[in-house]
Write a structure and sequence with these properties.
This protein has two helices and twelve strands. The chain folds into two domains: 30 residues; 119 residues, Immunoglobulin-like (Sandwich). 22% of the residues lie in helices and 42% in strands. By secondary structure, it is an alpha+beta fold. The strands form two sheets. Strands 3, 4, 5, 6, 8, 9, 11 and 12 form an eight-stranded mixed beta sheet that branches. Strands 2-1-7-10 form a four-stranded antiparallel beta sheet, with no helix packed on it.
Length: 160
């Protein structure tokens, strides 16, 4: 009698755990938010350019990561710059589709200028560099939801 009771309860517990675990795995596989932060690749003339990681949050239901820099402008100044022609195209590749993505020009430690905004999700974005010659620092900010899943990639360009 006791053996039957233990076996019955073990089967019930195993079934509940299997359903709960399967539901969790299914939700992770079908979610549009990846489990770990995707790496943004910035390309000029088909070649990846130097970038640095900016402030980001990637916080799933448990655990996760958050990263704060010493400031985007300082990070941008420390990032290796590349030389480009005015008005040329920059390609931004993100392996999963964020809800929103924006390019922000970092003018100095306290001044930011929204340069270009993309909405609706996508993996490949293109924007045009400024016409005016000079050095620019840009932040590629991608977000999958309001505050728990966002990435920031910083690059520096010298326009000639």
């Amino acid at each position: 009698m006791i053996k039957r009771y233990i076996t019955k309860n073990a089967i019930i517990i195993f079934t509940v755990l299997l359903i709960w675990g399967g539901g969790y795995v299914y939700s992770q596989l079908t979610s549009e938010i990846p489990f770990s932060p995707p790496k943004t690749v910035v390309k000029y003339n088909g070649k990846a350019i130097p970038t640095s990681l900016g402030d980001h949050n990637w916080i799933p239901k448990s655990g996760g990561s958050s990263y704060e820099t010493e400031g985007e402008f300082i990070v941008g100044q420390k990032t290796s710059k590349f030389i480009a022609k005015s008005g040329d195209a920059i390609h931004i590749l993100i392996p999963s589709k964020p809800k929103d993505m924006k390019i922000v020009q970092i003018v100095n430690t306290d001044k930011y200028k929204e340069y270009k905004t993309f909405t609706g999700g996508g993996k490949d974005y293109v924007f045009t560099l400024p016409i005016e010659k000079g050095e620019y620092i840009f932040n590629v900010f991608a977000s999958w939801d309001a505050d728990r899943h966002n990435t920031s990639t910083i690059f520096r360009v010298q326009i000639e």
